[in-house]
Design brief:
The chain is of the alpha/beta class. It has helices at residues 48-51, 60-72, 84-96, 110-128, 148-153, 157-160, 179-182, 189-207, 234-244, 281-284, 297-305, 320-335, 338-357, 393-403, 414-417, 434-452; strands at residues 27-31, 34-37, 42-45, 101-107, 135-139, 171-174, 212-218, 220-221, 228-229, 248-253, 276-279, 291-296, 363-369, 372-377, 407-408, 410-413, 422-426. The strands form 4 sheets. Strands 4-12-11-10-7-5-6 form a 7-stranded mixed beta sheet, with helices on both faces. Strands 1-2-3-15 form a 4-stranded mixed beta sheet. The N and C termini lie close together (11 Å). Residues 50, 109-111, 114, 143-145, 218, 222-223, 252, 254-255, 280, 291 line the site of 4'-deoxy-4'-aminopyridoxal-5'-phosphate. 4'-deoxy-4'-aminopyridoxal-5'-phosphate is lined by residues 50, 109-111, 114, 143-145, 218, 222-223, 252, 254-255, 280, 291. Belongs to the class-III pyridoxal-phosphate-dependent aminotransferase family.
Amino acid sequence: MPSRTISTEAVPSSVLHASLSIEPPKIVRAEGHYLHTSTGTAIYDASNGAAVSCIGHNHPRVKRAMSQQLDAVEYCFAPHFTTPAYEKLAKFLVDSTNGHLQKVFVTGSGSEAVEATIKMARQYYVEKGEPERKRFIARDRSYHGNTFGALDVSGHKARRTIYEPLLSGSTSHVSPCYPYRDRRTGESTAAYVERLAQELEDEFQRLGPQTVCGVVFETMAGLTLGAVASVPGYLARMKEVCERHGALFILDEVFAGMGRTGTLHAWEQEGVVPDLQTVAKGLGAGYMPIGALMVGKKVVDVLDRGSKAFMHFQTYHGHPLACAAAYEVQQIIRDEGLVENCRRMGEYLGERLRARLGAHPNVGEIRGRGLAWAFELVKDRKTKEPFPVNQKVAPTIHAAGLQKFEIALLPGGGVVDGVNGDLIVLAPAYNINREEIDLVVQRTAKAIEYVLGPATQNAKL
Ligand code: PMP
């Protein structure tokens, strides 16, 4: 395993992901689905950072919209002014939920959207006269962002532990919906869902139901569990438990939302509507930093009648340039039928990945939905035993992808928490075609086989 040799002078190494074990390629140009390095390599961007650049790089329509916005107004202070750019984006988002979610609070990132959500949920209960509702229930091994509040709801130990105690410490975690590891042999979907619902119910009882403010789940567990879609009926049942106890049902769709799983909002496939929802990555497709908190009627009504404004102003909230870029990205997604393409190409990607690597002795599971897919890699396919963390399997595959096979993959899982297997996550752009999928599958397979050996032989490691 190569040692970490980062020497990128003034860039702090903490900016570079902990799993990166090689000198990071220097990207000097990005075009379509390719990242061009200073040494002349064109890397296929199959993970788009962390599921961000969903329409590819350097899109002329977005550049034009941003340039027009720069000519019109590049910045003004959202708490004091509104802009057509913010209004158009907010209306688009509200309409996209058929009006279930009624107000849109535009932030600068996914973490900030989660922070805003936590504060808004608390304020909702203060205004309702139930100020004792302060707690949140989230899920183990989840990730909701890296600021203190968002980290507090995150259940991903490796990301939390070093910073504990977190400031509020008011979140507890229940099991995620993670059939590959947690569903018992022979257990039906209904029985599995019931078991998880009972666990949530028990957690409410343990905390005292009247102390719980909200339940925060990802609709599809994206990066830290590796593209795990909820089993049918799971989210609806969780919402039922949550509503029975009067807590808010909050969905974090920073990863899963804005088309990635084959519908604009991933909850559309689950038969649930959240009270509060966050989106980010696919919203702005990387052209500007942006996230949003979308607020349901129940919360809007109480806050509108409330005694205090929502005290969450930040200098760059509702940034006009970010709003204009995101609005154009969303128009492109609509005009080019890209959500539908996510669904169709996602099925093809899943088929091709399974055909090429499904029989590999170290591939525990290949799973996904839409254009979010992941490999869970294990030492032993039968027992599902993960590789030891210090073997750094996913980072080594990631490095091989970058250095030898010209593909950018996203490593995760065992590499950071040692609980599940190593993960390789794929999140290609929504406008990928079949030929590009074939290329992604071929390069990904080569990177995996380079490290673990070919599908027909035992693993090298
Ligand atoms: N929630 C989820 C589900 C995420 O995947 C992420 C980012 N990986 C975040 C929140 C935080 O978003 P950001 O990195 O934009 O702050």
